[in-house]
Amino acid sequence: MKRKNLTFIEEELYHLKSEQPLPVMVFIYGGSFRSGEARRESYGPDYFMHDDIVLVTFNYRVCALGFLSFADPALKIPAMLGSKIKYSP
Protein backbone atom coordinates (compact mmCIF):
# COMPACT_ATOMS: atom_id res chain seq x y z
CA MET A 1 0.00 0.00 0.00
CA LYS A 2 1.46 3.32 -1.04
CA ARG A 3 1.00 6.27 1.31
CA LYS A 4 0.50 9.80 0.12
CA ASN A 5 2.47 12.59 1.72
CA LEU A 6 -0.27 14.72 3.25
CA THR A 7 0.00 17.98 5.09
CA PHE A 8 -2.75 18.89 7.53
CA ILE A 9 -3.52 22.48 8.38
CA GLU A 10 -6.13 23.32 10.95
CA GLU A 11 -7.41 26.85 11.06
CA GLU A 12 -10.26 28.23 13.05
CA LEU A 13 -11.44 31.57 11.82
CA TYR A 14 -13.93 33.57 13.80
CA HIS A 15 -15.75 36.68 12.78
CA LEU A 16 -15.05 39.16 15.53
CA LYS A 17 -17.70 41.62 16.58
CA SER A 18 -15.08 44.19 17.55
CA GLU A 19 -13.45 46.43 14.98
CA GLN A 20 -10.58 47.18 17.38
CA PRO A 21 -7.50 44.95 17.63
CA LEU A 22 -7.60 42.56 20.57
CA PRO A 23 -4.72 41.86 22.97
CA VAL A 24 -2.95 38.54 22.39
CA MET A 25 -1.45 36.41 25.17
CA VAL A 26 1.01 33.68 24.15
CA PHE A 27 1.55 30.98 26.78
CA ILE A 28 4.58 28.66 26.57
CA TYR A 29 4.56 26.08 29.33
CA GLY A 30 7.75 25.27 31.24
CA GLY A 31 9.05 21.94 32.43
CA SER A 32 12.74 21.85 31.42
CA PHE A 33 11.97 19.57 28.45
CA ARG A 34 10.85 16.90 30.96
CA SER A 35 7.12 17.40 31.24
CA GLY A 36 4.34 19.76 30.36
CA GLU A 37 1.49 20.32 27.97
CA ALA A 38 -0.89 23.00 26.78
CA ARG A 39 -4.13 21.14 27.45
CA ARG A 40 -7.40 22.97 27.77
CA GLU A 41 -7.95 21.41 31.21
CA SER A 42 -4.68 22.85 32.50
CA TYR A 43 -4.32 26.16 30.67
CA GLY A 44 -7.65 26.67 28.94
CA PRO A 45 -9.09 29.96 27.73
CA ASP A 46 -12.07 29.95 30.09
CA TYR A 47 -10.74 32.78 32.26
CA PHE A 48 -9.96 34.98 29.25
CA MET A 49 -13.18 34.39 27.34
CA HIS A 50 -14.97 37.03 29.39
CA ASP A 51 -12.32 39.69 28.61
CA ASP A 52 -11.75 40.03 24.85
CA ILE A 53 -8.26 38.42 24.94
CA VAL A 54 -6.88 36.02 22.35
CA LEU A 55 -4.98 33.14 24.01
CA VAL A 56 -2.39 31.21 21.96
CA THR A 57 -0.86 27.98 23.31
CA PHE A 58 1.01 25.14 21.65
CA ASN A 59 2.75 21.89 22.44
CA TYR A 60 6.37 21.02 21.79
CA ARG A 61 8.62 17.99 22.24
CA VAL A 62 9.49 17.01 25.80
CA CYS A 63 11.22 14.10 27.54
CA ALA A 64 13.00 11.16 25.92
CA LEU A 65 10.08 10.20 23.69
CA GLY A 66 9.91 13.75 22.37
CA PHE A 67 13.34 13.28 20.80
CA LEU A 68 12.88 9.63 19.82
CA SER A 69 14.60 8.73 16.56
CA PHE A 70 13.55 6.07 14.10
CA ALA A 71 16.43 6.84 11.75
CA ASP A 72 16.53 3.74 9.58
CA PRO A 73 17.35 3.81 5.86
CA ALA A 74 15.13 0.77 5.30
CA LEU A 75 12.11 2.59 6.75
CA LYS A 76 12.95 5.86 4.97
CA ILE A 77 12.24 7.82 8.15
CA PRO A 78 14.57 10.76 8.83
CA ALA A 79 16.29 11.16 12.19
CA MET A 80 14.86 13.47 14.82
CA LEU A 81 17.42 16.20 15.23
CA GLY A 82 15.74 17.70 18.30
CA SER A 83 18.53 16.54 20.59
CA LYS A 84 21.11 18.34 18.43
CA ILE A 85 19.44 21.75 18.61
CA LYS A 86 21.74 24.39 20.07
CA TYR A 87 20.10 26.92 22.34
CA SER A 88 21.75 30.23 23.05
CA PRO A 89 20.96 32.43 26.06
UniProtKB/TrEMBL annotation:
Domain of life of the source: Eukaryota
GO molecular-function terms, A-Z: carboxylesterase activity
Domain (Carboxylesterase type B): residue spans on this chain: 17-74
Name of the top EC class for this enzyme: hydrolase
Keywords tagged on the record: Disulfide bond, Glycoprotein, Hydrolase, Serine esterase
Listed EC numbers: 3.1.1.1
SUPFAM superfamilies associated with the record: alpha/beta-Hydrolases
PANTHER family (UniProt xref): CARBOXYLIC ESTER HYDROLASE
Sequence similarity: Belongs to the type-B carboxylesterase/lipase family.
Protein name, entry field: carboxylesterase
Biological source species: Ceratitis capitata (Mediterranean fruit fly)
Lineage: Eukaryota, Metazoa, Ecdysozoa, Arthropoda, Hexapoda
